[in-house]
Amino acid sequence: MSVSMQVLYPVTEETNFDHAYYKDTHLKLVDEYFGSHLERVLVTKGVAGGPGIPAGFHAIATMVFPDQDAMNAAMKEAAPVLADIPNFTNSTPTLLIGEVVD
Predict the structure, then answer these.
(1) Tens of pLDDT along 33-90?
(2) Is 27 helix (H, G, I), strand (E, B) or coil?
(3) b vs e for 15-44, b when ≥16 Cβ sit within 10 Å of the residue's Cβ?
(4) I need a surface site. Which of 27, 39, 85, 101 has the fewest CB within 10 A?
């Protein structure tokens, strides 16, 4: 069964997020270190939380792995990816790991 890891970057008055750096640099690191373990990656840039409501997240990255073993293998290589986070945001990411139901 496929498993997903979602990385949510919450918006607060104090946080910032460099979407260009994230797209052009950080996602290349994700591909370099996690790519061989991944089925797919989807990134959603927050633009709204509903009509007239600001987005609650700068971005949400969804990484889908074929199984838990693949995700565990990717996480063993995560140090360079995690170390890059302060280069594009001061938001503290929240993780959601789950089973893909489709």
Answers:
(1) 999 999 999 999 999 999 999 999 999 999 999 999 999 999 999 999 999 999 999 9
(2) helix
(3) eebeeeebeeebeebbeebbeebbeeeebe
(4) 101
Please report, for residues 4, 27, 50, 60, 94, the alpha-carbon distance to residue 67 in angstroms, rounded to integers and kept in the order given. 9, 21, 33, 21, 21
**pTM for this prediction:** 0.93
Q: Extract the tokens encoding 73.
A: 């293998």
Beta bridge mates, 60: 8, 44
Nearest to 38 by CA among 10, 4, 11, 14: 4
Length of the chain: 102
